[in-house]
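Box 3.1 A note on notation
Throughout this textbook, protein chains are presented in two layers. The first layer is the amino acid sequence; the second is a token string describing backbone geometry. Keep the layers aligned when reading.
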Amino acid sequence: MRLYNIILQRYEFFVYLQKNNSMKVTPVPQNVAEEVLSLNGIQNIGHANIREVSKIINEIEQRTGVEFVRMEIGVPGLPTPEVGVEAHIQALKNGISSIYPPIDGTPDFKKEAVRFVKNFLDIDVVPECCIPTTGSMQAGMATVMTVNRMDKNKEGTLFIDPGFPVQKAQCKMLGHTYRSFDVYNFRGEKLREKLEEMLSDGKVSSILYSSPNNPAWYCLTDEELRMIGEVANKYNVVVIEDLAYFGMDFRKDYSTPGKSPYQPTVAKYTDNFILFISSSKAFSYAGERMALVVFSEKVWNIQAPDLLRYFQTDKLGRAYLFGALYALSAGTSHSAQYGFTAMLKASNDGTYNYIEAVREYGERAKIMKKYFTDNGFYIVYDKDGEVPIADGFFFTVSYPGYTGGELLKELLNYGISAITLDTTGSECQGIRACVSLVKAKQLPLLKERLELFHKQNG
């Protein structure tokens, strides 16, 4: 009888708490996330990087057995095209793995790179200026390592934020200073004014941004790209354009080789450019760490005596290739170059449509964004000019009354993960959601958990 009374009292207390909304019943018990964060020494999850957040989620899942809807990390979730896989395998069977790769790329790789840039960007480049790197991560490190050292009187990179946090970390590792601003309030003509303000003292060596953007998925308009190019010309600054999500603005079809529309690029408006074209997302080849770096002939042939402080040459292209890349890895995977080459060739020949293969990301994002907005959230970076942003690999959301860190911490209790905008250089409050690892079968689960979140927090 005594046990029965205790159980009854506890049940009545539970009902009381529920009625008074002083305790929430959530998929993940309320105290678990707090304990895991504490054990990992994370006082504010709003400042945690992607890998730290992933570790936290792994531990919560192990403790509770609750499957998370994981939106924190941009790992591609689609299979690699068969044409690339077969070429990669064949290269290995032919014994290529026993031979050091040419550091500047195989002849076929360079040939198809030139064709790809012409077919899908409508830009003419030469084979010498097309270089394979171990992903865009290495491309970024090698680029700032050389470009920012061309002039001892300049201080580093201007980041158009929000952006990929590791690129700033690379500058810090190299001892470079940098500047940045959140583009949220500087779209259109305001962008030119802000760039002029940031560059007018002549201290900046390079401008770096991504479009489509990680994390906000906005795309710079042609007019904004023109502004960047014109300002770069005026102040003799190298523009580093990160095209990690090449062609993945699904509002237009950039997939037909040699025909308009083409992937927008600053290279239309300046010859002070370096482009990063990653194989990870558009070609789902992330595990092989392959990217294509494209220099304009002008930038490749820059002669800068101050480079001799760090390299054996004052020619930028040679310093990049035989200084930075040689010291970092002495080239990239030989067999993976064959795989990437095959995918570039198939795209160039029109036998493989790289956009159709990844369009699923946009379809998934459209559904997920609606689940969020139907439950009290709003899209933070919502427009390019007057046009709503595309549905793609990422999107950003916020919830009234919450900072980004508070929102992410609360969502952990509902089995939903993301990263905050705080870590990306954004001045806005909210989170970045990635759609790539959210499985189709999890979409109803996401909807259910967001409805519960809104009911208990709205």
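The two ends are 41 Å apart (CA to CA). The longest strand covers residues 204-210.
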